[in-house]
Every structure is written in structure tokens, then in C-alpha cells.
């Protein structure tokens, strides 16, 4: 079932053109000229119920602008956007009941009151039935360890506690879709892991659709089944995560520890081998796995060395995304 349908969606911003020279500032007051910035340029995609989408792109690519249109706080310049059957901008009230939103950089909680009071206010605002409120509070209490800080005013919370509170509040009304903008930014590894496990669990149990923007590739690896990469307002890649890894991450490295130094390493110059790095008693062979099978490389190594240990290292998502960004920028 389609949860979000986007067709030829664009959003322009009108920027005042700076006039140069001595009288430039004065001239631009009386005779304004504008340039048009195409922040989102004719994008189309469909997101299904229960998907967790990593919405990626370099700084200024158009991620936040797209999310703001999905959330209903920015009106598109052209094109169509339907979220759970609703036009987000025209039916903002109805839309608000369907979505949860968390921006990592700023909180949506009331600064001076404890999280427990905020939750009661949300119950009232969203008209959350007693049963749903109780069930969700019980479920989120343990998963997010709310007990540590639920009665403390928000302004006294650490970043990790505040983020857990924000995520809890965004889900109390059982939204169909959760928008997360950099949910793990600035958090320590333990809290990051807690938040990722929580999102995964909610997605599994409630089939909540999740749209996630992040610059942390561990978020992508641990959560997302699909990634959409945007740059200069245009979708550059919309792919299943596994498929993306196969397409762009076709390199692996065989790392071998040897008993004696390897002398005859020229025997490893076979088609598909990209590089051979040699240290005393250590050898790292990088190869294209769609051209050569690691077993061939390993058997060649066995012929020329006494092996103590052998490992195959997969290329990390971080590196794959970096390769894709580099490829995108080299096409400009
Ligand atoms: N209100 C605005 N007025 C003018 N230009 C804007 C406005 N909002 C965004 N832009 C421009 O639109 C482009 C896309 O911005 P956007 O914030 O959507 O990028 P982003 O992918 O979210 O970047 P980041 O990862 O840095 O948050 C940028 O060039 C930005 O300067």
C-alpha cells in the first residue's frame, strides 16, 4: 500500500539578487531583482507502508525542503504530494494526526515542564484514548528508559535524554508515518544504539513508515531497507540498500597474516585484483568481486605464503555513499 506519493514535485525559493558597487545596496531597495533557487526540482517517488527510507544527500541537496513539503509546513511550487491519502498542506490538521516529526537539531518539547507533563498535554491535544496512551507509555517507558528523566524539566535534560523524549512524544498518538531529521546527531554510541533499536521495534510492531535523513551511515545500515539520494534538488538514486551495495560496493579486501614475509606477490596480479598492499608478514589484496572470486585469490596466496590468519573485509556503506557522492560531483 502506497503511503507517500510524490509526482513531479518542485519547490523554488526566490532570492534577492545582490547588487554590487557603491550604490548597490541602495539600488536593491528600490529596484529589486531576484534569482530563483530550485531547492527541489521535479522529483517523483512512491513510499510504501512500513518502509524505512534513508533520505540522503550532501549539504544543501534539498532533503529538508522535501521533508518540509511532506510534513505540510512548506507549500510546493508545482507537482503533487499525497501522504496517506491527504494533501499535507491543504489538510494540515488532519495530516498532523497521521505524522510524527523529530528534528535532531531542535526540540519540540516545552522547555520548562517535565516530559511527564508534556505527555499529558499531548494526550489532550491529540485526543489520545486512555487505552492507547497507557499502552504506548508502558511500551516506550522501558524501550527508551524514560524512568531516568521523565519528571525532570526538559531544559535540564542531556541531549540523549531529550532526543529519547522527543521520539517518545512524536509517537504517542500512533502516527502512520514518522519523519526523523538527523535523530542521532551528537549522541554517544550507547544512546544511538538505543534509539535505532527503538525505531526498528516500532516499525516492526506498528508497521510505522519511517523517513529518515542522516549523515550517519550506521543509521542507514541498521535501519533502512531503501535509500533515496538527492542532490541539487534531483533524485540521483532510489534503490534497495542491498542492490545499492552490490552496484556500488563491489570491492572487497582479503587480509592475510603470514608466518614469513611474502616475496612472490606478483603472482597475485590477476584480472579483478585492484591493488596489493604489503607489510612485513601482512598482505591486503583489494579486488572487484564481480570479476574475481576470493577463493581464487586465497588459493594463490596459499601457494606463495605460509598463512597464519585470513579475513575478508566488505566495503562499508560509508565508503559506498562517499563513492556515490564523488561520482555525482564528477558528473557536474
Ligand atoms: N527558505 C529558504 N530560502 C532560500 N533558499 C533556501 C531556503 N531553504 C532552503 N534553501 C536552499 O535550498 C537548497 C536546499 O536546502 P535544504 O535545506 O533542503 O538542503 P538539505 O539537503 O536539507 O541540506 P543539509 O544536509 O545541509 O541540512 C539549499 O541551497 C538552500 O540554501
From TrEMBL:
GO MF annotations in UniProt: ATP binding; ATP hydrolysis activity
Keyword field contains ATP-binding: yes
A Pfam family that the UniProt record links to this protein: ABC_tran
Coiled-coil region(s): none
Keyword Protease set for record: no
Keywords: ATP-binding, Nucleotide-binding, Transport
Span of domain ABC transporter: 24-257
Gene3D superfamilies xref list: P-loop containing nucleotide triphosphate hydrolases
Name recorded for this polypeptide: Sugar ABC transporter ATP-binding protein
Organism from which the protein derives: Paenibacillus beijingensis
